[in-house]
Amino acid sequence: MASLSGFMSVLTFLLFLFVDLMSSSEAAIKKYQFDIQVKNVSRLCHAKPIVTVNGRFPGPTIYAREGDQVFVNVTNHAQYNMSIHWHGLKQYRNGWADGPAYITQCPIQTGNSYTYEFNVTGQRGTLWWHAHILWLRATVYGAIVIMPKLGTPFPFPQPVREFEILLGEWWNNDVEEIVKQGNKMGLPPNMSDAHTINGKPGPLFPCSEKHTFAMEVEQGKTYLLRIINAALNDELFFAIAGHNMTVVEVDAVYTKPFTTQAILIAPGQTTNVLVHANQVSGRYFMGTKAFMDAPVPVDNKTATGILQYKNIPNTVLPVLPQLPASNDTGFALSYNKKLRSLNSAKYPANVPLKVDRNLFYTIGLGKNSCPTCLNGTRFLASINNVSFVMPQTALLQAHYFNIKGVFRADFPDNPPIPFNYTGVPLTANLGTSTGTRVNQIAFNSTVELVLQDTNLLTVESHPFHLHGYNFFVVGTGIGNFDPAKDPAKYNLVDPMERNTVGVPTGGWTAIRFQADNPGVWFMHCHLELHTGWGLKTAFLVENGPEQSQSVLPPPKDLPSC
């Protein structure tokens, strides 16, 4: 019997080992089906059809582990063309999976499918996905949660549970129709009717008692909140009444932890915070509202959710959070200054110290003549006086297949006319041109890019996102960038590494990155309004000398234009 028992023990161990190996193998490949479908949804006493993924708003979360391979098959059942961007995933050599329509792919037409295939390499944390065509990301978005490799702990206290918090905007009317109407009149579209937390505006809005996100916590325990700003046009404050938050990660990069009563998060950015449930058991509002320190109208209403301690009845009235004032520039500058890369032995900040290419991009708003528009003019936006025109053939396809006439690789490194960028307001557009122009970058070269806000029409904060890369935010300041003095103040030790950065109102931001990812990579303001006006461009990063440093061949089911 003893020998049989031993044999059974060995057999059980081998079976467990086999199952564990099989599960590990299966865990390395994650497959998702995204059905783009229209669904009727009701908010703020208004029902309307919206475009969704799998009928969900927000859409499903993509869960993966560092090192996994992910397949997402997208089938388009909606009336609009569709493309999905996996915001923050570097997509090394694999721009075909990046997603921005007419940049790396033609859109997925109604009735068609396309499978996005990508590897999650060297990244862990919170990212997100969203539609990258028209304004469809108003409702087509969701979280990406990348866990560290098995056996690798977080570099901060282990939470007992995690919550995803997606901040968004809601329009009572059809968003695409609102945008069309605005474009026809030459004016910005109507602003949103509410902000949302996980698609819900909260009980301070009409007909919204049941449309309120709530999370239950237990006294004395610590929770991780994965916060994503999926709003189209608003930088947002976020706070929880009575509770501090410890920031531990932004844009899927670990930070030096710091404690704050509120966070500031721009469209496209993610922030992970730890929350310790250490207050008197009760119900506490979490709130989000817009930050705007320029004379620009925004949706200034506060969306709320509820943090509720276990066993507390719903009849207890929640406490409201103290959010910064809507125009609190001081808080914004102070908060962003606290963001520092963890820069540990395991997670170093490999800041490029030598620069091969210096770029200086001015950000400008302007007006062009439009006889059919309401005021005889139409808004436009530009970088270095070039307002980008979207092509009809995807840029990456034109580059890879050497299709002529789609774009010009002569985007200017500097503005054509230097001026007092942040001085008195200027109404002239300084001869803004339109065109599909990209900047060609040598493979593996180190780039420093200074993004300079201007007072063309008005100064304003602009969150810029670079596809295919993370970058280091080495410097920022108010006023005009001074190339003789400001670089001496750069942080080249532990600057924040991220994929989306806010250029402060009437100021500048300097970033550095190593151009080691070949392909065509979009760079644009993540305010959808400004992107539509032309505040965008792209980098064409050349192939390296080795085949392993060149753009991968396109997939067979790549959509055609």
Question: In terms of topology, how is this protein built?
Answer:
Elements: H1 2-27, E1 29-43, E2 46-53, E3 62-65, E4 69-76, E5 84-87, E6 113-119, E7 125-131, E8 141-147, E9 161-170, H2 175-185, E10 194-197, E11 214-217, E12 222-229, E13 235-240, E14 245-250, E15 253-260, E16 262-265, E17 270-276, E18 283-291, E19 303-309, H3 329-338, E20 357-369, E21 377-383, E22 386-388, H4 395-400, E23 433-435, E24 439-441, E25 446-453, E26 462-466, E27 471-478, E28 496-498, E29 500-503, E30 507-514, E31 519-525, H5 528-533, E32 536-541
Structural features, described:
The chain is mainly beta. The chain has five helices and 32 strands. A six-stranded mixed sheet has the order 10-9-12-17-14-15, with no helix packed on it. Strands 21-20-25-30-27-28 form a six-stranded mixed sheet. The chain is globular, with a radius of gyration of 24 Å. Mean pLDDT is 94; it is low at 1-26.
From the structure above, extract its key features:
561 residues; disordered N terminus; 5 helices; mainly beta; six-stranded mixed beta sheet
Runs with pLDDT <50, length 5+? 1-26
Q: What is the general shape?
A: globular
Mean pLDDT score: 94
Distance between the termini: 71 Å
Sheet with the most strands, sense and barrel status? 6 strands, mixed
Rg of Cα set: 24 Å
Q: Quickly give the structural class.
A: mainly beta
Our estimate of the beta-strand percent is 35-45%
Tally of alpha and pi helices: 5
Strand order of the largest sheet: 10-9-12-17-14-15
Fraction of residues in helix: 10-25%
Q: What is the β-strand count?
A: 32
